[in-house]
Amino acid sequence: MGTPSARGFLEPPALAGKVAAGELPPIDERLPKEPFVVGPGVLLQQEHMDWQDGRYGGTLNGAATFATGFVNIAGSSTILRSPSQTTGTSVPNIVSAFSHSDDYTTFRFTIREGLRWSDGVPVTTDDVRFTFEDVYGDPDVQRPWPTDLYTQGDANLGPAKLNVIDQYTFELAFSKPYGFFVASLNSWIPNYDIIFKPAHYLKQFHRKYAKPDVLERLVKENKRSSWVQLLQSKDVPHWEIGEARAMGLPVLNAWVLTEATESRRVYERNPFFWHVDASGRQLPYIDKVVNNIVVDTDAQTNAILAGQVSVASGGEVTLAKMPVYLQNAQRSNLNVFTTGSFNNPPLLFLNHDYDYKATGSGWQKLVTDPDRRFGRALAAAMDSDGVNKSVFFGQYGPPMLNNTVHDPALAKRLLDEAGMNRLDGNGFRLGPDGRQFTLRITYAAASADFTPVAELLKEQIEAVGIRVDLDRVDTTLFDQRKAANQLMASLAWNDGPAWPSGISEDYLPVHKGPWSPATWTYYINGGKEGRQPPAYLKAFYDLHTARKQFPPESAQGRQVYDQLMRWLQDNYVFIPTTGTRTTPNVVDKRLRNVPQKGAPYELDTYINAEAMWFAEQ
User: Are 518 and 358 a contacting pair, CB within 8 Å?
Assistant: First the structure.
């Protein structure tokens, strides 16, 4: 087990040689005055994981089609921390103390004294000041303010105002109540780098601080056209910490990028990571993460089945391949289990802004019908249980949201009442304007199940008389058409299970499938561009704004959220194709501190990575 230090901490064996050689300070000097103690119920709720203090050593191997793999999620470096994907019981993480005013306009933070970046430099309010004044606040840098730092997430209300009190303490003040901000502080999606950037490192690329001749040399060496481009490339967002340009970037994550080649990325333990277990072991338990970059998902699957991958979850594994995972489990020493998901199943999005400028638009007549008969008809035409059995082996949950009853007769009656009671020569319904009508559903195949789901959807909707045209495009074209308000309807997924906690808000009108992109433009630009929302859409924005006032899992926050969900369901802006997702997880059988079968989110398998350790067997 090793001999505890004077402060009661245990030196990871992988670092002992560097400490003995004087290349690293001893552990007592590397950890802050008050480390963050991890144990049962801290990273995941106790009922979802059997926590055991671990042992050191080993390499966590991954296979991914992109450089970062899961390490961007496994950083454990959020400003506050709640178990799993919750935000209601958040505790200080990067900071040692956190408080807010009663009206949620002012938030006070105290950085952990002695907390250090991965290169050993102390984290102080100078890092926060640099982030606010010299990155976001310097127009020459051209780095926009993150949405999370605008009052109520609204650019029209201006960003937070920073007040630095001392070396460790600072305040952020907003112009209106913004209790929802606690979700951003807990979320791995914005993570710590919206507020904390390593000033000592980035200053060398900033014109305000660097010597002109040195900066010019760095620009040339890095093959950039200007210091602005250089700084932008070196200020690597956490989503891209596996990119080669992130080499040398000090981080607060559990592992640090040390090798970046075309075929793999290697991350080694952060010697200054400030999490410890109850026995005094500095986390992470595992010394190294290796992400082997593969050419496609088939190669990824082959690596998993060969036992070359320690952890595979999320988009790396699919329910369709569950039988083959199980067949290879014993040979490759794999633990295969299912959990819930961070994502909803594929949903059908109806764009309420499509064709809104056209006089007498038949589409607009359908989607603005106060009784929402068109959306209700589509939901009744869609066979959620059939999709589940045909595509997802009956493993998904029961029908959900506003798609709970399969009733083609009801669908036909609603369409008749909506003005689609006339047929063309092929037996398909004409639009309420008397013209030929085609429901064009556009989708980018984000996963293998999208195409079979789309084909089933076409069959089910055409069975009630609506002609359907499926349009599969690549992701780039999908995003371009989404931004240009050119999508009538689309198939996409979103992060529905994470909405109550505020970790995700991608129910918003253009965040996944677009359901009102033009009014969203109007909302975020203060009416300068886009479409002024009609009354029923304005009701959504009023609820969205009201929700921002309160912490999402407070009593008031939950009340507004319930009203918001009722609006989304009643207005049929999106309709689930089937029930809640079940997803596989495939991990090395020796790994401990992994979520249990039936845990709510597959991404918790990644987020908990700092706590994983290899048993001898």
Answer: no
Q: Tell me the DSSP string of 183-234.
A: HHHH-TTT-GGGT---HHHHGGGSTTTS-HHHHHHHHHHTT-SSHHHHHHHH
- The reported pLDDT for the residue numbered 143 is 94
State residue 1's pLDDT score: 62
Which residues contact residue 61 at a Cβ distance below 8 angstroms, ignoring those fewer than 6 apart? Answer: 289, 290, 292, 308, 309, 310
Gap between the Cα atoms of 586 and 174, Å rounded: 44
C-alpha distance from residue 129 to each of 137, 207, 497 (Å): 10, 16, 35
pLDDT in tens, 427-458: 999 999 999 999 999 999 777 899 999 999 99
d(CA 70, CA 611): 15
Provide the phi-psi class of 58: left if phi over 0, else alpha when psi is between -120 and 50, else beta. Answer: left
How far apart, in whole angstroms, are the C-alpha atoms of residue 135 and residue 159?
Answer: 13
CA atoms within 13 A on the CB side of 566: 8
Residues 464-487 have pLDDT tens digits of: 999 999 999 999 999 999 999 999
> How many Å apart are CA 101 and CA 171, to the nearest integer?
11
191 contacts 75 by C-beta, under 8 angstroms: yes
**What is the edge-to-edge ordering of all strands in the sheet holding 169-173?**
95-100, 106-111, 169-173, 161-164
Please state whether 427 falls in left (phi above 0), alpha (psi between -120 and 50) or beta. Answer: left
Please tell me whether residue 525 adopts helix, strand or coil conformation.
Answer: coil
The pLDDT of residue 71 is: 84
The residue type of 534 is P
Angle at 554 between CA 553 and CA 557, to 5 degrees: 80
Interatomic CA distance for residues 593 and 360, integer angstroms: 60
Identify whether the C-beta of residue 396 lies closer than 8 Å to the C-beta of residue 410. Answer: no
Residue 498 contacts residue 184 (beta carbons within 8 Å): no
Tokens found for residue 48 = 């979802």
Instruction: Give CA angle at 475 (472, 479), nearest 5°.
Output: 105
**Centroid of chain to Cα 171:** 26
- Which residue ranges of the chain lie beneath pLDDT 50? none
- Extract the tokens encoding 171: 């305040």
Phi, psi of 144 (to 5 degrees): -65, 155
Token pair listed for 132 = 């606010």
Please give the C-alpha separations between residue 539 and each of 364, 489, 545, in angstroms, as whole numbers. Answer: 18, 22, 10
Rounded CA-CA distance 308/241 in Å is 23
